[in-house]
Amino acid sequence: MAGTATARAAAPVTSPRTSPRPAARPAPGVPPRLRVVAAPRQARTRVPFVIACMAVLALALVAALLLNTSTAGSAFERYTLTNQLARLQQDQLDLQAQLDARSAPDRLAAAARGIGMVPANGTGWLRLSDGSVRGAPGPAQAG
After folding, report:
1. What whole-number distance in Å separates Cα of residue 5 and Cα of residue 10?
2. By three-state DSSP, how is residue 114 classified?
3. pLDDT for 40-97, tens place per residue?
4. Angle formed by the axes of helices 105-114 and 47-102, to 10°?
């Protein structure tokens, strides 16, 4: 039996293991490189981060809502002003047409006769530089 024990020791040992072998323990006098640490006493919570994200999203939503409301209000005001401008332009055209109609020569002559004016017989001009009368003015005759 002593012969078999030495034969076993002399034979190479091969094992079909695929995992690496555990590392050798360090010498008792050398401090280890890795050490065991305790778990944190209180894990950090994500609540403040989530609240901050929700606040940023809420502010963005409120800003978009205010911008949209402001834009809609401005568009309504522009629509109202455009309609008012169109009405005022139409009123201006109507007044211009009335003025043109009243400025026509036959309407002016009729209005002048209505207030007692008579047509002049001749026309004359005053020359201001020397005070002379040019043309053939004559007195108007009531008629």
Report:
1. 9
2. helix
3. 777 678 899 999 999 999 999 999 999 999 999 999 999 999 999 999 999 999 999 9
4. 70
CB 124 within 8 A of CB 135: yes
Q: Which residue carries 């009335």 as its tokens?
A: 98
Tell me whether residue 63 is exposed, middle or buried, using C-beta atoms within 10 angstroms of its C-beta: 0 to 12, 13 to 18, 19 or more: exposed
Query: Which residues have C-beta within 8 Å of that of residue 49, sequence separation ≥ 6?
Result: none
String of DSSP letters for 18-70 = -SPPPPPPPPTTSPPS----PPPSSPPPSHHHHHHHHHHHHHHHHHHHHHHHH
What separation in angstroms does the CA of 66 have from each of 54, 59, 102? 18, 10, 54
pTM: 0.44
